[in-house]
Amino acid sequence: QVQLVESGGGSVQAGGSLKLSCTASGNSYGNRRISWFRQAPGKEREGVASILITFDHPYYADAVKGRSTISQVKDKNTVYLQMNSLKPEDTAMYYCAATTRANARLSLEKYDSWGQGTQVTVSS
Question: pLDDT per residue over 34-49, tens digit each?
Answer without folding.
Answer: 999 999 999 999 999 9
